[in-house]
Predict the 3D structure of the following.
Amino acid sequence: MYKVMQNQIYSNYSNNLLFVLSILECIEKLTIYSEGFDSSEHFFESDDQQAYNASCHLLLAIGEETKKIDSSLKDEISFIEWNQITSLRNRIDHDYRGIDPDIVIFLF
């Protein structure tokens, strides 16, 4: 029984680590993609919206990874607004054309 619990704890830890690392990778890419833009309009319109669309996709990925993190870890790191991250993901996913570029660039 102890071995099973130990394996489950290790598995949860490993999974959470994977999810957090994935989120950090997305954040790094968002930072790179948003460099050099002086306005949300420029960010939205540049390269046929390539940086904007890629950034929205990364925000979706962050929201998905956030949903997979164990609630115990979320409770430990309570200063992060986990529900707002998930809500943003849902907003982008279900109302993609209605997303304000000012909100997207403000996040970086």
About this structure: Confidence is low (pLDDT under 50) at residues 1-7.
